[in-house]
Amino acid sequence: MDVFGDLFRGIRAHGSLFGSTTLTAPWALHFVDGAPLTLCTVLDGSGWIVPDDGPPEPLGAYETVVVRGPGTFLFVDTPDTTAPPVACGEFCSAPEQGGTTHRLGWADHRAGDTRAATLIVGAYPVHGEISRRLLDALPVVLRVEAGGTGDAVLDHLAAEVARDIPGQQVVLDRLLDWMLVCTLREWFDRPGGEAPAWWAAQRDPVVGEALRLLHADPAAPWTVASLAERTGVSRATLAKRFADLLGEPPLTYLTRWRMTLAADLLVEQKSATVAAVARTVGYADPFGFSAAFKRVRGLNPTEFRRAAAGVAAR
Questions:
Q1: Which pLDDT belongs to residue 109?
Q2: What is the pTM of this model?
Q3: Cis status, amide bond into 196, omega within 30 of 0
Q4: Are residues 159 and 110 both part of a single domain?
Q5: Residue that wins the pLDDT comparison between 240 and 4
Q6: Which ranges of 217-300 does DSSP label H, i.e. alpha helix?
Q7: Are residues 234 and 272 in the same domain?
Q8: Which of 5, 29, 50, 314 could cross-link 74 (Cys pair, CB 3.0–4.6 Å)?
Q9: What are phi and psi of 122, to 5 degrees?
Q10: Same domain, residue pair 92 and 113
Q11: Is the same domain home to 242 and 270?
Q12: Does one domain contain both 232 and 275?
């Protein structure tokens, strides 16, 4: 498991697709859910993404924008559109809500209408502390132009939305996930970009291998010496390269990652004891685990679990 794949594990599309082949100017769709992460891509035509706080972003054919919540945003034909905003949420699929005649298929394209646009949106609920580390690396709005690796995915999306067959939603969900991965990869690798430290570190032959080992088995009794042996360098070399690329020593990184895993386990596995969670993330002593958790998270495990339950109830 690499770092990116690990952070992506709690982000999945699930029946959250909104598509339209009948958006004819003027239009203004207001996506009101405030999803933690929303992917918007245009198959044909063009429009503009207008976030709550930020400048409008043009969106042409085969271009993609990712919007980070909790703010809402508009998809409009032009920034100064005369169309009144139509509130559109997770179940926005009826024509009077800005959607289409067919929930499946969307095969009612008006041939030759140059003012129409085909918009695909995937709204992603983000579960847990793990995936939030990925969100923390993203701006409110990021944009990737056409011509990259995502174009092939969009070809598949264009073909799939034109059909009405069993299992379509499952296929569309997976295509959206694929599209999101391609989009984030290209954005992190853009010339002159400022990708998170862990992104570049994955490609270092030494530090990248150390990260893969830590993420593959975070509960193992890792030491700098054992990591150095597995990566084929001295302890001093590993420690220096790791700190240079990630800004912290290997075992400090491991502790923070273990506490992130533990935070999700405490919330997701309500019947698990603190001792059981401690063992899962590599601590034989629950007291040592609790001390480490409070040092990193600011609360002990029981307090954290209680606070998370209160937030969920609200």
A1: 45
A2: 0.82
A3: no
A4: yes
A5: 240
A6: 224-231, 235-246, 250-268, 274-280, 286-297
A7: no
A8: 50
A9: -120, 115
A10: yes
A11: no
A12: no
Question: What is residue 83's three-state secondary structure?
Answer: coil
Give me the amino acid identity at 74.
L
Residue with tokens 């401690």: 278
In the chain, the number of structural domains is 3
Low-confidence winner among 5-9, 231-235, 253-257 (lowest mean pLDDT): 5-9
Residue 255, both tokens:
């502790």
Distance CA 125, CA 62 (A): 24
- Rounded Cα distance, 140 and 37, in Å: 9
Other beta carbons within 10 angstroms of residue 271's beta carbon come to 5
The pLDDT tens digits of the residues spanning 200-221 come to 999 999 999 999 999 999 999 9
Stretch 55-84: mean pLDDT: 90
What token pair was written down for 167? 């299992």
Mention every residue, 6+ apart, whose C-beta is less than 8 A from residue 199: 3, 4, 137, 188
pLDDT at 1 exceeding the cut of 50: yes
Whether residue 286 sits in one domain with residue 160:
no
In 3D space, the residue among 170, 181, 167 whose CA is nearest the CA of residue 37 turns out to be 181
Residues 6+ apart with CB under 8 A from 251: 222, 223, 224
- The Cα–Cα gap between 98 and 87 comes to 8
Contact status, residue 132 vs residue 165, Cβ threshold 8 Å: no
Give bridge partners of residue 74 from the DSSP assignment: 30, 50
Q: What is the CATH number of the domain that holds 83?
A: 2.60.120.280
Domain range spanning residue 96? 3-188
On whether both 35 and 91 belong to a single domain, the answer is yes
The Cα 188–Cα 193 span in angstroms is: 7
Q: Residue 293 sits in a domain of what CATH number? A: 1.10.10.60
d(CA 109, CA 273): 55
Of all helices (H) and strands (E), which one includes residue 201? Answer: helix 197-201
Query: DSSP letters along 134-169, please?
Result: HHTTS-SEEEE-SSSTHHHHHHHHHHHHT---TTHH
End residue of a domain, out of 171, 188, 205: 188
Residue 192 predicted with pLDDT over 90 = no
